[in-house]
Amino acid sequence: MTQQVLDGVRDLLPTLRSRAEEAERLRVVPDASIKELEETGFYRLLQPKRYGGYESDPVDFYTGIKEIAGACGSTGWVSSVVGVHPWQVALFADEAQQAVWGQDQNTRLSSSYAPTGKATMVDGGFTLSGRWSFSSGSDHCQWVLLGGLVFNADGQVVDFRTFMIPRSDYTIEDVWNVIGLRGTGSNDIVVEDVFVPEAFTLSMSDTGRCFGPGQEVNTSNLYKLPFHSVFTMTISTPLIGMAYGAYAEHVEMQQKRVRAAYLAEKTANDPYASVRIARAANEIDSAWVLQMHNLRELQACVERGERIPLQLRLKVRRDQVIASERAIRAIDSMFESSGGRALAEGTYLQRAWRDAHAGRVHAANDPERALAMYGSLEFGHKIDPGMY
Q1: Nearest-CA neighbor of 202 among 286, 85, 302, 314?
Q2: What 3-state DSSP class applies to 210?
Q3: In the chain, at which end, N or C, are there fewer CB atoms within 10 A of the end residue's CB?
Q4: In this model, does residue 263 exceed pLDDT 70?
């Protein structure tokens, strides 16, 4: 079934590419694109079989993301973050899963994990209030996953949790006016004193050790992978897809280009242009292959029933942030050497250049913190828990 889904996604790519300008104009992925991707079954790839999902190999999920982003960066970004959320919902208590998928197995969720809201402990759960930014694809979703610090009665922080909230309990504020990833509709979520039952929350300390109550009913090894490994790849993979899309257009453009400043030389005959293409191709392939290799290492540990070593988890983060850097470096190189036609509205290359740099500012793509953690561990220092 997974292959059918990917085949359906590939059939949609020309249409998604033709709608890229519409997505930018609307500042949100067009409804038709979301519906058509839903019909392929894409959003169910990581969803539990108990609720109509496929529990697919995450390599297949990321492959689909890479190809969607190669057609439209904004659609790839939204498909990635919305498409990965069923994986996290599978870790929640079954009561929460039933609330999400019991009536409609096509229910989608957006998210904003930065703990900008405040949760207070009350009987049976928490009260939650706050404003969260950058909830990509929120217009197309019926639930949201929000990060929040938990305070006790004395005002002390005692936990960091993810809270799952239905659409009736939050407001979306349209604030998304940006130069890159314009079509993602990454608007603000506002919550005012909403009660959240404990079953509709997950402690990040639990997910940090690869645990969630939903594992009692969703026993697949898929749901035993580290949260931060899965989610950070969800952020870097669209950038890799954008780089592949930019590469395809760049090669096509350069094959037709004649450089007037160099006695009407065809760019395709310029050895320096060929070298740039080779370097860009290597950057992009290296980003993709190493990220998928690391995912296979994680899966192998889980299949053997072993605890995933901290060093491997930090290596995953190391290579994930460098994958984003490689993708952007390749796009920059191609953009610099593409000539004035690449500046025209409607070209994929200029949009990929803007979208990739916009994606770079996501916290998951912050290279210094991830690289410092890896290097510190290599030097024998104690590592503070973080996004690993």
Answers
A1: 85
A2: coil
A3: N
A4: no
Pair of tokens at residue 206: 């639990």
**H helix intervals, the chain:** 2-18, 20-26, 31-40, 58-71, 73-89, 94-101, 204-208, 227-256, 271-303, 310-336, 348-360, 367-378
Q: What is the pLDDT of residue 267?
A: 66
pLDDT at residue 188, rounded to an integer: 98
Q: What is the DSSP letter of 180?
A: S
Q: Which of 283, 286, 261, 258 is nearest to 333 (CA)?
A: 283
Cα angle 353-108-19, degrees, rounded to a multiple of 5: 40
- d(CA 256, CA 236) in angstroms, rounded, equals 31
Banded pLDDT at 343 (limits 50, 70, 90)? confident
- The number of residues making up the chain comes to 388
CB 92 within 8 A of CB 149: no
- What confidence tens digit (pLDDT) does each residue in 224-259 have? 999 999 999 999 999 999 999 999 998 888 777 665
What CATH class has 225-378?
A: mainly alpha
| pLDDT at residue 109, rounded to an integer | 98
Alpha carbons within 13 angstroms on the beta-carbon side of residue 68 total 31
Classified by CATH at the fold level, domain 2-103 comes out as Butyryl-Coa Dehydrogenase, subunit A; domain 1 (1.10.540)
Amino acid type, 164: M
Q: Which CATH number fits domain 109-203: 2.40.110.10, 1.20.1250.20, 3.40.50.80, 1.10.150.390?
A: 2.40.110.10
Judged against a pLDDT cut of 90, whether residue 387 lies above it is answered with: no
**Domains of the chain, residue spans:** 2-103, 109-203, 225-378
* Distance from C-alpha of 288 to C-alpha of 240, rounded to nearest angstrom: 7
